[in-house]
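Key result, reporting period 2: structure in, sequence out.
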């Protein structure tokens, strides 16, 4: 039975992924910090499937020791990890100088290093078995820098570079690395984020309706099935991913004008 480990599996996109794999009869390990949220996720998944096929671990991905030990316990419970999805992530929008150094670092520690720590915990085993799939969850803000998202964009851009370099190392050993760039998605994080999203960012990003977490999860899981490296959502992010270096000077020119107009109207 496939063993899927999902960091950030207690909420939002991670929980939707867990629902998806539960419907396929996989064994699922969920990792996040808040135990009651994990237990609630366990209860929801147990209703629609096999409770014995769900394992939860409370751990902070930013702490390499904690996440390593937690993933080792998941593998003891359900066997080697076949699929790792690093979905744990946080966002705290705000102008660069308004975000405290602690809050800035926390986003990098969670989104970037938290993903790397989780990958390190399963990678050697996958290489040895010459099998395994790893999906790193970046963001649309990992394709273009967004006003008010310096820490978040930095962490999500860096994940792309990490994924690209690791992909070429892992491929000869039968391990497939992927990275996805979700758009705005209806999740608890998105609701919290909107309260702090600067007006400039809201104008730049436009009024595109957010995706549902089930739609995002379904696309991620199908991309893992097909061994796709990069996963985009919607034609705008696809075009940005494929033709970003050509399109970004024009987009940034347009963004700058919009930001100036907002500044003048204040
Ligand atoms: N929603 C969007 O619009 C959107 C768009 C693009 C990309 N994304 C990315 O998609 C991923 C999931 O986001 P979401 O919107 O589904 O968020 P969410 O509903 O807030 O879920 C985040 C999950 O990550 C866990 N988590 C956060 N910090 C953690 C830490 N230090 N250690 C372990 N687990 C941690 C949370 O549980 P605890 O807090 O209990 O630890 C929770 O399970 C994130 O990487 C996010 O950046 C989201």
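The corresponding designed sequence is given below.
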């Amino acid at each position: 039975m496939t063993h899927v480990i999902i960091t950030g599996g207690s909420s939002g996109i991670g929980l939707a992924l867990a629902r998806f794999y539960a419907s396929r009869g996989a064994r699922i390990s969920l990792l996040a910090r808040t135990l009651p949220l994990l237990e609630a996720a366990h209860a929801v998944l147990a209703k629609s499937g096999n409770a014995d096929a769900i394992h939860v671990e409370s751990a902070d991905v930013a702490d390499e020791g904690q996440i390593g030990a937690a993933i080792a316990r998941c593998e003891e419970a359900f066997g080697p990890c076949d699929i790792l999805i690093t979905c744990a992530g946080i966002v705290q929008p705000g102008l660069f100088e308004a975000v405290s150094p602690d809050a800035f670092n926390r986003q990098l520690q969670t989104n970037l290093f938290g993903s790397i720590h989780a990958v390190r915990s399963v990678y050697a085993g996958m290489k040895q078995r010459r099998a395994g799939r790893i999906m790193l969850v970046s963001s649309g803000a990992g394709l273009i820098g967004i006003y008010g998202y310096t820490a978040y964009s930095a962490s999500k851009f860096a994940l792309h570079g990490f994924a690209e370099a690791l992909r070429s190392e892992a491929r000869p050993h039968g391990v497939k690395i992927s990275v996805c760039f979700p758009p705005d998605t209806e999740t608890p994080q998105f609701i919290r984020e909107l309260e702090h999203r600067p007006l400039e960012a809201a104008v730049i990003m436009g009024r595109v309706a957010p995706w549902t977490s089930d739609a995002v999860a379904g696309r991620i899981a199908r991309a893992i099935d097909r061994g796709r490296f990069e996963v985009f959502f919607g034609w705008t992010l696809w075009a940005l991913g494929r033709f970003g270096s050509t399109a970004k000077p024009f987009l940034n020119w347009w963004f700058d004008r919009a930001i100036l107009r907002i500044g003048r109207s204040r």
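The chain has a mean pLDDT of 95. The chain has one domain: 3-265. This case is discussed further under Risks and Mitigation.
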